[in-house]
Structure formats: C-alpha cells, structure tokens
Amino acid sequence: MQLLKTLSATTLLVAASGTAFAADMASNMTLVSWGGAYQASQVAAYAEPYKAMHPDVTITWDESSNEAVAKLRAMNEANNVTWDLVDVVAADALRLCDEGLAMEIDANELLAPAPDGTSAEDDFGDLLVSDCYIPQIVYSTTVGFRTDMVPEGTAAPTDICALFDTKTYPGMRSLEKRPINNMEWALLCDGVAKDEVYDVLGTPEGQQQALDKLATIKDDVIWWSAGADTPQLLADGEVFMGSTYNGRLFSAIVEQDQPIGMLWDAQVFDLDGWIIPAGLPEDRLARVKDFVRFATDTQRLADQSKYISYGPARASSAPLVGKHATLGIDMAPHMPTDPANSKNTFLYNYEFWADYRDDIDAKFQAWLAQ
Fold it and tell me: What percent of the chain has pLDDT above 90?
C-alpha cells in the first residue's frame, strides 16, 4: 500500500512539474558536451535510454562545452540560440546565470524527487551552486603519467609538483589552455599555502607569480583544449605527464590498458552539469525539460557511473553505484571522492573564477602568446 502511495505521489509530481508537458515538444535537441569518454557515458546512461522511450526524437551532440560561454554570448547577440542544453562546469554556470544567458530553474519543480520522496533540492544539497545549474557529477582534474617513461632508478611521481620537476622527470607535459587549475598548482608548487592560494591569486602580483612558475616549464608544454587530448598524448608517448579529468584517465588505464599512472595529489574537485539557454521557444523548452527530468533522476545519475569514474551529484544515487558496465569491476574505489584518493585534495573556488575568469583569461592568453 505504501509503495502504491509513493508511486501515486510521484506520478502526480511528474504530471505537475512537466514530464508530460502540455505544449507540443520539439522532435530534436542539440546537446552540448565535452566529447570523449565523458560524453560517451552520457549517451549510454541517459541519451540512448531516452531515445528508446521516444524513438521519434533526434539528439545531436556538439562538443563545444569548453567554449560554451563565448559561444552562448555570440548566439545571444545574434538572437540565434541553436543549442538546447549545455554541459558546463560550475563557474561557467555562475557566469552564464549572472549574464542572463542561462534560464533560472526551480529544482523541485523541474527535477524528479528521490525514490523515497526526498525533494530534488535536498537530494542535490549544496551542489546546487546556482539558480541556473543542474549538477550531474563530481569529478576532479588531476595528472596522469607514463609509467614506462619514469627514469630507471627513480620512483614514480606522487606529488603534484612533479609537473614542474623536469630534471627528475624529463619529458613533455600537457596542460589545459586556460588558467584554471594551472595557476593554483603553480602557486602551490611555488610555496603558497593551500588556504592562501585564492587570496594570492586575487592580486596582480599573485597572478604574475603563478605565470612565472608556469614559465619554468612553458617550453615543455603542449596545451590542450579537449578533455580527450591528454589521454591520447599519453597513449602516443608524446608527453610524459599531463592534466585531464580523472574519468578520462580511468578510461585509458582500466578500459584501454595503457601504461599510465594517475596522480591523485592536489586533485581539483569540481562539478559538471547542465544549463538551459535562456529564451528557448516553447516547443524546444518543453522537450528539454522532459529530457532533463529523466536524465538527472536518481537511477540515471547512478547509471552513468557504470561507464566513467565520476561521482553522481545526487545523494540518493551514491548507494546505487555498482560495477563497470562491461568490465565488472567495482567502481567505488575509482571515484575521486574515495578516501584513499582524496587524502590531499584542492577545492575549486567557483565564486573566485566567476568573478576573475575574464580578466585572468586575458592575462593568461597574452602570456601564452609571448
């Protein structure tokens, strides 16, 4: 009887909040993500199951998330927003929301409750960092290295500052072509205390200090823009070590059996999730809302962890994290939040980068061009 009551309540919530929208729904969506193993996990966990339920719907993927802010600004200026749902990191969501380019949402209205009836707002908790943001996963940016390129007689690197130690660990590095994470690691490895990094980085002198530290390896760096770049560079032996997302390294190490090790030290925790562009026509918005409610429910976010080692953003999803979909291995020890992996983490400051990103980006790009 209680189960029937719960199902009935859920059905009413679904009807009230828009899984079956009254407006005609568009038959196609353009979703924007990051490509590679992460996007593949999204396709497997919720895009394909959604299409199986709605065979008339066409989903087109665009791999431009790293340029989402600039492109949405341009689309808005041209009054021609062609994207329906955009995967972004939390700091970019804050910027897009502040600029009115992302639609504000009511989490409890748009998103499904947990199976036990817990509201979406309570289930996502503190990860709802913006009124426009729909979190999907907790991930980290960390460093991978070629285990077979460690010099003979030298221990494998365990410290983030190995990035800057080209004497002990010679070879090319790959770093993301943006200031985020690089600037923080540079300051940490130049002696700045972890709890003072953002205070220092908020000053022109601190920004120059970070760039000066990065300059010590600038000639040894290949700069990447897509998350799949570093795993490929490592696989090809073009770099000794490089930064990327922990799930990309998991894919290279566990699924592809590459001779790559992972450095968890000073991994930078961050969130990834959806924003809905502001001003979508009613039919496109109705379809997007229907998809988002499905794609971010408890089961779907847990299902994503079958394909990639990112932690689901919902509390109710965590107990459902199980084994890899094809390898059958337990996924929990491969999550960035696992106690063995999170002994020395660095917490990304969303508000700082939302405030400083444009200015520091300009300074960083000018430095790169020198």
Answer: 78
Whether residue 162 sits in one domain with residue 129: no
CB 294 within 8 A of CB 319: no
Are 262 and 276 found together in one domain?
Answer: no
Contacts of 266 (CB under 8 A, 6+ apart): 142, 160, 185, 188, 344, 345, 346
Q: Give the range of the structural domain holding residue 225, as residue numbers without chain letter.
A: 141-269+343-369
Q: In the structure encoding, which two tokens stand for residue 355, read together?
A: 């405030």
Whether residues 208 and 84 share a domain: the answer is no
CA angle, corner 162, sides to 156 and 159, nearest 5?
70
In a domain? residue 35: yes
Q: Is residue 96 part of a domain?
A: yes
232 and 157 in one domain?
yes
CATH number at residue 359: 3.40.190.10
pLDDT tens digits for range 49-86: 999 999 999 999 999 998 999 999 999 999 999 999 99
Question: Could you tell me the pTM of the whole model?
Answer: 0.74
Q: Look at the chain and report how many structural domains it folds into.
A: 2
Residue 339 burial (CB count, 10 A): 7
Question: What single letter denotes the amino acid at residue 267?
Answer: Q
State the pLDDT at residue 10: 35
Looking at residue 23, what is its pLDDT?
53
Distance CA 193, CA 215 (A): 20
Of all helices (H) and strands (E), which one includes residue 222?
A: strand 221-224
How confident is the model over 215-232, as a mean pLDDT?
A: 95
| Residue range 42-55, pLDDT digits in tens | 999 999 999 999 99
Two structure tokens written together for 285: 């918005």
Q: Measured at the alpha carbon of residue 129, what is the angle toward residues 25 and 120, in degrees to the nearest 5?
A: 55
On the question of pLDDT at 204 being above 50, the answer is: yes
